[in-house]
Amino acid sequence: MLLDPALLLQTALSGILLGAVYALLAGGLNLIFGVMRIINVAHADLMMLGAYNTFWLFSLWGVNPLLGLLGGMPVLFALGWGLQRFLVSRVVRASELTSLLLTFGISIVIVNVGLYAFTGDFRSVAYLSGSIVVRGMALSKVRLVAFAVALAITVAVFLFLRWHPWGRAIRATSQHADLALACGIDVDLVRLGTFGLAAALAGAAGSLISMMYSIYPEMGAFFLLKSFAIIILGGRGSFPGAFVGALILGLIESFTALWTTATHAEAAAYVTLILMLLLKPSGLLGEEE
Fold first, then answer.
1. Across 51-197, where does the E strand assignment appear?
2. pLDDT tens profile 9-28
3. Counted domains in the chain
4. Selection from 172, 185, 208, 217 nearest residue 73 by Cα
5. Which CATH number covers residue 175?
6. Is residue 284 part of a domain?
Protein backbone atom coordinates (compact mmCIF):
# COMPACT_ATOMS: atom_id res chain seq x y z
CA MET A 1 0.00 0.00 0.00
CA LEU A 2 2.80 2.41 0.92
CA LEU A 3 4.47 1.76 -2.45
CA ASP A 4 1.33 2.38 -4.48
CA PRO A 5 2.38 4.70 -7.37
CA ALA A 6 -0.70 6.91 -7.05
CA LEU A 7 -0.14 7.34 -3.31
CA LEU A 8 3.55 8.13 -3.83
CA LEU A 9 2.69 10.71 -6.50
CA GLN A 10 0.06 12.35 -4.31
CA THR A 11 2.53 12.48 -1.41
CA ALA A 12 5.17 14.05 -3.66
CA LEU A 13 2.72 16.66 -4.93
CA SER A 14 1.64 17.51 -1.39
CA GLY A 15 5.26 18.01 -0.42
CA ILE A 16 5.94 20.29 -3.37
CA LEU A 17 2.80 22.34 -2.68
CA LEU A 18 3.91 22.84 0.92
CA GLY A 19 7.54 23.50 0.01
CA ALA A 20 6.68 26.46 -2.21
CA VAL A 21 5.16 28.26 0.81
CA TYR A 22 8.23 27.45 2.92
CA ALA A 23 10.34 28.99 0.14
CA LEU A 24 8.79 32.43 0.61
CA LEU A 25 9.82 32.55 4.25
CA ALA A 26 13.27 31.04 3.81
CA GLY A 27 13.98 33.09 0.69
CA GLY A 28 13.58 36.36 2.56
CA LEU A 29 15.75 35.16 5.43
CA ASN A 30 18.42 34.07 2.95
CA LEU A 31 18.34 37.47 1.22
CA ILE A 32 19.09 39.22 4.51
CA PHE A 33 21.95 36.86 5.26
CA GLY A 34 23.37 37.21 1.76
CA VAL A 35 23.36 41.02 1.76
CA MET A 36 24.21 41.76 5.41
CA ARG A 37 25.55 38.47 6.83
CA ILE A 38 22.95 38.79 9.57
CA ILE A 39 20.84 35.92 10.90
CA ASN A 40 17.50 37.59 11.55
CA VAL A 41 15.93 35.60 14.37
CA ALA A 42 12.87 37.87 14.23
CA HIS A 43 12.14 37.01 10.59
CA ALA A 44 9.53 34.35 11.30
CA ASP A 45 7.82 36.66 13.80
CA LEU A 46 7.24 39.09 10.94
CA MET A 47 5.59 36.13 9.22
CA MET A 48 3.34 35.80 12.28
CA LEU A 49 2.28 39.44 11.89
CA GLY A 50 1.43 38.79 8.23
CA ALA A 51 -0.67 35.81 9.29
CA TYR A 52 -2.62 37.87 11.82
CA ASN A 53 -3.09 40.70 9.35
CA THR A 54 -4.84 38.26 7.01
CA PHE A 55 -6.81 36.66 9.83
CA TRP A 56 -8.23 39.92 11.19
CA LEU A 57 -9.05 41.33 7.76
CA PHE A 58 -10.90 38.10 6.95
CA SER A 59 -12.62 37.72 10.33
CA LEU A 60 -13.70 41.33 10.88
CA TRP A 61 -14.45 42.55 7.37
CA GLY A 62 -14.59 39.41 5.23
CA VAL A 63 -11.63 40.47 3.10
CA ASN A 64 -10.46 37.68 0.80
CA PRO A 65 -7.19 36.29 2.24
CA LEU A 66 -5.42 36.77 -1.08
CA LEU A 67 -6.36 40.45 -1.05
CA GLY A 68 -5.23 40.59 2.56
CA LEU A 69 -1.89 39.17 1.43
CA LEU A 70 -1.47 41.88 -1.21
CA GLY A 71 -2.44 44.57 1.28
CA GLY A 72 -0.20 43.19 4.01
CA MET A 73 3.00 43.00 1.98
CA PRO A 74 3.49 46.81 1.76
CA VAL A 75 2.81 47.11 5.50
CA LEU A 76 5.42 44.46 6.30
CA PHE A 77 7.82 46.08 3.83
CA ALA A 78 7.49 49.36 5.72
CA LEU A 79 7.98 47.60 9.06
CA GLY A 80 11.08 45.82 7.77
CA TRP A 81 12.41 49.10 6.37
CA GLY A 82 11.92 50.74 9.78
CA LEU A 83 13.60 47.91 11.68
CA GLN A 84 16.61 48.08 9.38
CA ARG A 85 16.77 51.89 9.42
CA PHE A 86 16.60 52.39 13.18
CA LEU A 87 17.91 49.14 14.69
CA VAL A 88 19.59 46.58 12.46
CA SER A 89 21.73 49.11 10.56
CA ARG A 90 23.61 49.79 13.80
CA VAL A 91 24.97 46.22 13.97
CA VAL A 92 25.57 45.38 10.29
CA ARG A 93 29.35 45.64 10.69
CA ALA A 94 29.38 44.32 14.25
CA SER A 95 30.06 40.73 15.26
CA GLU A 96 27.55 38.04 14.33
CA LEU A 97 26.77 37.54 18.03
CA THR A 98 25.78 41.21 18.38
CA SER A 99 23.35 41.07 15.45
CA LEU A 100 22.00 37.74 16.68
CA LEU A 101 21.27 39.18 20.12
CA LEU A 102 19.63 42.27 18.62
CA THR A 103 17.27 40.32 16.36
CA PHE A 104 16.54 37.94 19.23
CA GLY A 105 15.50 40.93 21.30
CA ILE A 106 13.29 42.20 18.45
CA SER A 107 11.73 38.75 18.26
CA ILE A 108 10.89 38.78 21.98
CA VAL A 109 9.26 42.20 21.66
CA ILE A 110 7.17 41.18 18.63
CA VAL A 111 6.01 37.94 20.26
CA ASN A 112 5.02 39.64 23.52
CA VAL A 113 3.19 42.41 21.68
CA GLY A 114 1.40 39.66 19.77
CA LEU A 115 0.45 37.85 22.96
CA TYR A 116 -0.86 41.09 24.47
CA ALA A 117 -2.80 42.15 21.36
CA PHE A 118 -4.02 38.78 20.04
CA THR A 119 -3.88 36.54 23.17
CA GLY A 120 -2.40 33.05 22.96
CA ASP A 121 -5.50 31.49 21.38
CA PHE A 122 -5.08 29.37 18.26
CA ARG A 123 -6.85 30.84 15.24
CA SER A 124 -7.18 30.02 11.55
CA VAL A 125 -8.62 31.36 8.31
CA ALA A 126 -11.41 29.10 7.04
CA TYR A 127 -10.83 29.53 3.33
CA LEU A 128 -11.25 27.07 0.45
CA SER A 129 -11.93 23.88 2.34
CA GLY A 130 -12.07 20.56 0.52
CA SER A 131 -10.02 18.92 -2.21
CA ILE A 132 -9.88 18.55 -5.97
CA VAL A 133 -9.74 14.97 -7.24
CA VAL A 134 -7.43 14.51 -10.23
CA ARG A 135 -7.05 10.96 -11.55
CA GLY A 136 -7.77 9.49 -8.15
CA MET A 137 -5.54 11.95 -6.28
CA ALA A 138 -7.12 14.33 -3.77
CA LEU A 139 -5.31 17.66 -3.75
CA SER A 140 -6.15 20.28 -1.15
CA LYS A 141 -7.71 23.38 -2.73
CA VAL A 142 -6.06 25.77 -0.30
CA ARG A 143 -2.62 24.19 -0.85
CA LEU A 144 -3.04 24.47 -4.60
CA VAL A 145 -3.90 28.17 -4.30
CA ALA A 146 -1.07 28.75 -1.80
CA PHE A 147 1.37 27.00 -4.14
CA ALA A 148 0.30 29.09 -7.12
CA VAL A 149 0.59 32.36 -5.18
CA ALA A 150 3.91 31.41 -3.57
CA LEU A 151 5.36 30.31 -6.92
CA ALA A 152 4.23 33.53 -8.62
CA ILE A 153 5.80 35.71 -5.91
CA THR A 154 9.01 33.66 -5.89
CA VAL A 155 9.39 33.87 -9.67
CA ALA A 156 8.67 37.61 -9.59
CA VAL A 157 11.37 38.18 -6.96
CA PHE A 158 13.82 35.98 -8.86
CA LEU A 159 13.26 37.97 -12.06
CA PHE A 160 13.57 41.20 -10.10
CA LEU A 161 16.92 40.09 -8.68
CA ARG A 162 18.07 38.90 -12.10
CA TRP A 163 17.06 41.77 -14.36
CA HIS A 164 16.02 44.90 -12.47
CA PRO A 165 18.79 47.46 -11.67
CA TRP A 166 17.87 47.33 -7.98
CA GLY A 167 17.94 43.56 -8.09
CA ARG A 168 21.42 43.63 -9.61
CA ALA A 169 22.47 46.09 -6.89
CA ILE A 170 21.25 43.63 -4.25
CA ARG A 171 23.23 40.81 -5.86
CA ALA A 172 26.33 42.98 -6.13
CA THR A 173 26.09 43.97 -2.48
CA SER A 174 25.62 40.34 -1.53
CA GLN A 175 28.74 39.30 -3.43
CA HIS A 176 31.03 42.10 -2.21
CA ALA A 177 29.62 45.10 -0.35
CA ASP A 178 32.82 47.20 -0.43
CA LEU A 179 33.29 46.67 -4.16
CA ALA A 180 29.63 47.52 -4.78
CA LEU A 181 30.12 50.75 -2.82
CA ALA A 182 33.21 51.59 -4.89
CA CYS A 183 31.10 51.11 -8.05
CA GLY A 184 28.65 53.78 -6.90
CA ILE A 185 25.94 51.57 -5.38
CA ASP A 186 24.26 53.03 -2.30
CA VAL A 187 24.85 50.00 -0.09
CA ASP A 188 22.92 51.38 2.88
CA LEU A 189 19.84 51.99 0.70
CA VAL A 190 20.18 48.49 -0.78
CA ARG A 191 20.20 47.04 2.73
CA LEU A 192 17.09 49.00 3.62
CA GLY A 193 15.28 47.71 0.54
CA THR A 194 16.48 44.15 1.08
CA PHE A 195 15.26 44.03 4.67
CA GLY A 196 11.93 45.50 3.60
CA LEU A 197 11.60 42.99 0.74
CA ALA A 198 12.44 40.09 3.05
CA ALA A 199 9.83 41.27 5.57
CA ALA A 200 7.23 41.52 2.78
CA LEU A 201 8.01 37.94 1.72
CA ALA A 202 7.66 36.80 5.33
CA GLY A 203 4.29 38.55 5.52
CA ALA A 204 3.15 36.83 2.32
CA ALA A 205 4.23 33.46 3.71
CA GLY A 206 2.31 34.18 6.90
CA SER A 207 -0.85 34.99 4.94
CA LEU A 208 -0.66 31.68 3.09
CA ILE A 209 0.21 29.71 6.23
CA SER A 210 -2.82 31.19 8.03
CA MET A 211 -5.02 29.42 5.48
CA MET A 212 -3.37 26.03 6.09
CA TYR A 213 -2.38 25.98 9.76
CA SER A 214 -3.57 27.33 13.08
CA ILE A 215 -1.78 30.55 13.98
CA TYR A 216 -0.68 31.88 17.37
CA PRO A 217 1.80 34.58 18.49
CA GLU A 218 4.65 32.13 19.24
CA MET A 219 4.41 30.25 15.94
CA GLY A 220 7.54 31.94 14.57
CA ALA A 221 10.01 29.67 16.40
CA PHE A 222 8.52 26.58 14.76
CA PHE A 223 8.89 27.96 11.23
CA LEU A 224 12.23 29.65 11.88
CA LEU A 225 13.86 26.29 12.51
CA LYS A 226 12.43 24.99 9.25
CA SER A 227 13.86 28.05 7.50
CA PHE A 228 17.31 27.35 8.92
CA ALA A 229 17.13 23.78 7.62
CA ILE A 230 16.07 25.05 4.18
CA ILE A 231 18.89 27.61 4.04
CA ILE A 232 21.52 25.07 5.04
CA LEU A 233 20.08 22.60 2.54
CA GLY A 234 19.85 25.01 -0.39
CA GLY A 235 22.88 27.18 0.33
CA ARG A 236 23.41 30.25 2.50
CA GLY A 237 22.81 33.52 0.70
CA SER A 238 21.30 31.86 -2.39
CA PHE A 239 17.70 32.85 -3.19
CA PRO A 240 17.26 30.03 -5.77
CA GLY A 241 18.87 27.70 -3.24
CA ALA A 242 16.18 28.57 -0.70
CA PHE A 243 13.48 27.61 -3.21
CA VAL A 244 15.14 24.30 -4.06
CA GLY A 245 15.81 23.54 -0.40
CA ALA A 246 12.20 24.32 0.53
CA LEU A 247 10.83 21.93 -2.09
CA ILE A 248 13.19 19.19 -0.91
CA LEU A 249 12.22 19.73 2.72
CA GLY A 250 8.54 19.63 1.76
CA LEU A 251 9.11 16.30 0.05
CA ILE A 252 11.09 14.94 3.00
CA GLU A 253 8.35 15.90 5.45
CA SER A 254 5.57 14.47 3.29
CA PHE A 255 7.25 11.09 2.76
CA THR A 256 8.35 10.88 6.39
CA ALA A 257 4.73 11.43 7.47
CA LEU A 258 3.59 8.76 4.98
CA TRP A 259 6.02 6.11 6.15
CA THR A 260 6.17 6.95 9.87
CA THR A 261 4.15 9.57 11.78
CA ALA A 262 3.46 13.30 11.61
CA THR A 263 5.64 13.78 14.70
CA HIS A 264 8.59 12.20 12.94
CA ALA A 265 7.90 14.40 9.92
CA GLU A 266 8.38 17.51 12.05
CA ALA A 267 11.70 16.15 13.28
CA ALA A 268 12.83 15.55 9.69
CA ALA A 269 13.79 19.24 9.31
CA TYR A 270 16.26 19.02 12.19
CA VAL A 271 17.75 15.75 10.97
CA THR A 272 18.17 17.27 7.50
CA LEU A 273 19.88 20.35 8.97
CA ILE A 274 22.36 18.23 10.96
CA LEU A 275 23.18 15.94 8.03
CA MET A 276 23.78 18.87 5.66
CA LEU A 277 26.05 20.59 8.19
CA LEU A 278 28.07 17.39 8.49
CA LEU A 279 28.17 16.42 4.81
CA LYS A 280 27.94 19.66 2.81
CA PRO A 281 27.88 22.81 4.94
CA SER A 282 27.76 25.11 1.88
CA GLY A 283 24.44 23.59 0.78
CA LEU A 284 23.37 22.40 -2.65
CA LEU A 285 23.64 25.78 -4.42
CA GLY A 286 25.83 27.68 -1.99
CA GLU A 287 29.48 28.55 -2.48
CA GLU A 288 32.30 27.14 -0.43
CA GLU A 289 33.72 29.70 1.98
1. 131-134, 137-140
2. 888 988 999 899 999 999 99
3. 1
4. 208
5. 1.10.3470
6. no
